[in-house]
Amino acid sequence: MYSYIKGTVEEIYLDRIVLENNGIGYEINVSSFTAQSVQKGKDAKIFTKLIVREDDMSLCGFASRKELEMFKLLTSVSKIGPKVGLGILSCATPPQLSAYILSEDIAKLSKCPGVGKKTAERIILELKDKVDKESAEFEATLFNQAPTGLELDEAVEALLALGYSNVESKEAVQKFKKDGLKTEDLIKKALTYLMTK
């Protein structure tokens, strides 16, 4: 029904944004990556998917077509709904998810919110022949080394909440990602680094 919506970002939350277009505020459920990619008061183009249920209608939104396509693939897997689909997309980028699926990395998929071992196995089984092999990122990236992607993501979000930019936050977290720190210690180290820059 809606391919995308262009408008001004009025509100940003961890899992949704409000986009105003022609005087209408659209509440759109998003991944944390999409939430981090937009700025309050700035214009944005969000690719959308309308979710219709018996008792509810909602919009899911994505910063890129690749993210939208990955969401469609994930939610085509039995027992994965929109909420879990967005949770998985908050855990890793589409190219990283493609790599996890192609390399049958159950451990990394299982770390995504709402995904257990059985669900991870089902994702691999149903999507291995459908994901984009060309764009898969197998090399080491910010979100697929120890500590876990979720811990790195949480540390970046904490720094963003403290007013640091996306670039500064990711740079600081990346600097200490190999130290094997948990979220809290990772935030402390990253903060110390940013304050002494």
TrEMBL record:
Q: Which domain of life is it from?
A: Bacteria
Which keywords are on file for this protein?
A: ATP-binding, Cytoplasm, DNA damage, DNA recombination, DNA repair, DNA-binding, Helicase, Hydrolase, Nucleotide-binding
User: Which is one Gene Ontology cellular component term of this protein?
Assistant: Holliday junction resolvase complex
**Principal location:** cytoplasm
Subcellular location(s): the record lists:
Cytoplasm
Indicate the segments forming the DNA helicase Holliday junction RuvA type domain, all copies: 1-59
Q: What does this protein do?
A: The RuvA-RuvB-RuvC complex processes Holliday junction (HJ) DNA during genetic recombination and DNA repair, while the RuvA-RuvB complex plays an important role in the rescue of blocked DNA replication forks via replication fork reversal (RFR). RuvA specifically binds to HJ cruciform DNA, conferring on it an open structure. The RuvB hexamer acts as an ATP-dependent pump, pulling dsDNA into and through the RuvAB complex. HJ branch migration allows RuvC to scan DNA until it finds its consensus sequence, where it cleaves and resolves the cruciform DNA.
Q: What does the subunit comment say?
A: Homotetramer. Forms an RuvA(8)-RuvB(12)-Holliday junction (HJ) complex. HJ DNA is sandwiched between 2 RuvA tetramers; dsDNA enters through RuvA and exits via RuvB. An RuvB hexamer assembles on each DNA strand where it exits the tetramer. Each RuvB hexamer is contacted by two RuvA subunits (via domain III) on 2 adjacent RuvB subunits; this complex drives branch migration. In the full resolvosome a probable DNA-RuvA(4)-RuvB(12)-RuvC(2) complex forms which resolves the HJ.
Q: What is this protein called?
A: Holliday junction branch migration complex subunit RuvA
**Source organism per UniProt:** Intestinibacter bartlettii
Gene behind this protein: ruvA
